[in-house]
Specification:
6-stranded antiparallel sheet, Heat Shock Protein 90, Beta-Lactamase, 24 strands, 16 helices, elongated, 717 residues, alpha+beta
């Protein structure tokens, strides 16, 4: 936040609502002087004039206090919504929502921010399909669509954001996933001027009700918030019973001003009340209501009025002198409140909270002081939550002063160092000495485009120097935050930055992996083509079964390789999954009819598919004609690493099957598939013996072709 003080004579804010343009408001001292002059009127008119003036002054003060309370409380609610909007805009600016972005990383970031605000975060695409919902536990399936249920549902609000590209707040509805009354703050995630996603965060009615209860004075009235349809969102009294109900309508509210007073009756018991309302600036149609019983107004001034009529003449002289001294005492705390408000509006540290106004014991001023302190505390809490959200998201902030071409930043991305301080460093020197030469022109062009007023925001990725030889990738998002009142040109740019070095490295690794997967996919298609070409075609059903089985074997190998990132797979796991397809269908309770034995072996990706096909052919033959075709038959599969010969040796032995009469007269299709994969692809050797007790197959594959090299463990510092 900019800590510079406002120049003397420059207004700190726009004129308050309800004031006439070009007309300066009158000071409180002038009103007091007018009251004193009225006291000096001729004796015949004193009683009526004094009574009328006292009545109007007190009535106006009471109504003004009620209106000020409505404005202050509305500002508090606006700050709550504004804090959520700011946090969501940070999320919407995240590159995780870019096309092809990392939604899992976005979900993790959103959960941190949702937790900081005591709620959750959702993100939807243009079809209202949820792409993230932090109310749902990680791993659970997301609902098909978002938006609350009922007329106030968020679907219309989300559609409005997609249509306009602007922030909005939905009306109260029942959450489709949470099942609770909620209203949502939605912001657009713009990419190249198009709304790609809408990011939302709930406004929980119970949270607003708790804030309203903390501001309500016991027994003096109630505070409520309604949405654009007049539905009760939160109330300081009977919130749980009244939330979600339509507020009773008086005159057409569409013609009401932004702030005003109306008379009515209490919702619960019909007691006459005076109601001040103020429309929220951040949520169109939302209104804050503050009411007090009419009896409070009458009882407050009826007694003093009677006393004034009886003792007016006797107290005239004394009251005139007392009024002069009292005006000074009343104006002193008022001036203190004004100075305090000016310091807060100028962004300067306000110092300690104002002490109680002991020299002006006026309840309204004390209530105004307390309400101002509470509103200020609420604003500062919102700023603190925003800073926590930025810190939790790993973001750093910066500001650029365009006239002086200097910049100020936080140190989250690049820590302070002698050649790059945190405050007041030269922008031109930063370009020349810190930014990578290949990225310098792109960064300068982006900033200059905003500085000339040709664009409101910019986003750019570039490298900055880290130490003597290293570089860090940084992503920055900035925009205009202050303009010259005369020319309209930007004076100050502010934004956020984050370190995306790891993301850039991940993108490079992903590109290499895509090339490897493409290569492996082509190999798999070649194997499938060979399987189709070699399968017997005389019998259509047999041809389909043979192709289906071999494609399934290839798919199993592909699945294992995918699990390990195409770095290979374990031999035992490959054998177990290949034989699992031929297990008995009666259930896992029966003992499997095979025995496996051998040391741990990590196969290469190139050896996984041929061995998977060989095991499939052997198991298919055993199921049709061998040990697995009859009850009691068993097979034994063993393997070993023959380091001396440089071979991986596997032995397949079948026992207890139908007696064999010897080797078949012709080599079958399965034998050709085994030899094609082992001998031609892996340069290995297969030997088959058809003994009387069953088939025995020996497979020998060079270690260089079959076994993945052992990698040294990575050391993480």
């Amino acid at each position: 936040m900019d800590q510079s003080a406002a120049a003397p004579g420059v207004p700190l804010a726009a004129p308050a609502p309800g004031t006439r343009p070009g007309r300066q408001p009158r000071g409180l001292r002038l009103y007091l002087i007018g009251l004193i002059l009225a006291a000096l009127l001729p004796a015949l008119g004193f009683g009526a004039a004094a009574c009328w003036t006292a009545l109007r002054s007190y009535h106006a003060a009471a109504e003004g206090r009620l209106l000020d309370s409505a404005r202050a409380l509305a500002a508090m609610i606006d700050s709550e919504i504004g804090a959520r909007r700011a946090a969501l805009e940070v999320l919407a600016a995240s590159s995780y929502l870019d096309p092809g972005g990392d939604l899992a990383a976005f979900d993790s970031l959103a959960r941190n921010i949702g937790t900081a605000f005591g709620g959750w975060v959702t993100a939807m695409d243009s079809s209202l399909r949820l792409v993230a919902h932090t109310f749902i536990q990680p791993g659970q399936e997301l609902p098909s669509s978002g938006g609350g249920l009922g007329p106030g549902g968020g679907g219309a609000a989300v559609a409005r954001v997609f249509a306009t590209g602007r922030f909005t707040v939905s009306d109260l509805a029942v959450g489709r996933t949470s099942g609770r009354f909620t209203a949502f703050v939605f912001v657009p995630a713009l990419r190249d001027g198009t709304v790609r996603h809408v990011v939302g965060m709930p406004i929980l009615p119970e949270h607003l009700a708790q804030l309203l209860r903390s501001q309500a004075s016991p027994g003096e009235g109630a505070i409520a918030v309604t949405d654009g349809r007049g539905v009760m969102v939160a109330r300081s009294e009977d919130h749980e019973r009244l939330v979600g109900q339509m507020r009773p309508q008086g005159a057409a509210q569409e013609s009401w001003q932004a702030t005003g007073l109306v008379s009515g009756r209490r919702w619960l018991d019909g007691t006459p009340i005076r109601v001040a309302y103020h429309r929220l600036a951040t949520a169109p149609g939302w209104t804050l209501w503050v009411n007090e019983p009419e009896a409070t107004f009458l009882q407050a001034w009826l007694g003093p009025l009677l006393a004034l009529l009886v003792g007016g003449l006797l107290a005239l002289g004394f009251g005139l002198a007392l009024a002069i001294g009292l005006s000074r005492r009343v104006l002193r705390p008022v001036h203190a409140l004004v100075r305090h408000a000016e310091r807060v509006a100028a962004g300067s540290p306000p110092g300690d909270f104002l002490p109680p106004m002991a020299d002006a014991p006026v309840a309204e001023f004390e209530a105004l002081r307390i309400a101002g302190m509470q509103a200020e505390a609420a604003l500062r809490r919102g700023e603190t939550r925003l800073r926590l959200a930025l810190t939790g998201a790993g973001l750093g902030s910066f500001e650029i002063d365009l006239p002086s071409r200097t910049a100020t930043r936080t140190g989250q991305v690049l820590p302070a160092r002698p050649d790059l301080p945190l405050a007041g460093f030269s922008l031109d020197r930063y370009f020349a000495e810190t930014v990578h030469p290949e990225d310098r022109a792109r960064l300068e062009a982006a900033i200059e485009t905003v500085a000339r007023g040709e664009a409101e925001h910019y986003r750019v990725e570039y490298r900055v120097r880290k130490g003597q030889d290293g570089w860090t990738w940084m992503e920055t998002y900035g925009g205009t935050v202050e303009r010259d009142p005369a020319s309209g040109l930007p004076l100050r740019i502010a934004g956020v930055a984050r370190d995306v070095t790891e993301r850039k490295a991940a993108e490079a690794r992903q590109w290499l992996l895509m090339r490897e997967v493409d290569h492996r996919a082509k190999n798999a298609l070649a194997v499938v083509q060979a399987a189709v070409r070699l399968a017997p075609k005389a019998d259509a059903a047999g041809f389909a079964a043979a192709v289906e089985g071999r494609v399934a074997a290839i798919a199993r190998a592909q699945g294992l390789l995918t699990e390990t990132g195409w770095s290979g797979t374990g031999l035992r796991m490959l054998v177990e999954r290949s034989l699992a397809a031929f297990a008995s269908p009666e259930g896992a309770s029966q003992e499997v009819p095979w025995t496996l034995a051998g040391p741990p072996v990590e196969l290469t990706a190139a050896a996984t598919q041929p061995l998977s096909l060989a095991l499939h052919e052997l198991a298919t033959n055993a199921t049709k004609y061998g040990a697995l075709s009859v009850p009691g038959g068993r097979l034994v599969l063993t393997w070993q690493l023959d380091q001396a010969a440089g071979l991986l040796r596997l032995r397949w032995e079948e026992h207890g099957g139908p007696p064999l009469a010897g080797a078949p007269a012709h080599s079958g299709f399965g034998s050709r598939v085994i030899r094609s994969g082992i001998e031609h692809q892996l340069h290995g050797q297969t030997t088959m013996r058809w003994a009387t007790e069953g088939l025995a197959c020996d497979i020998a594959v060079p270690l260089a072709q079959a076994v993945a090299p052992t990698r040294a463990p990575e050391i993480v510092l």
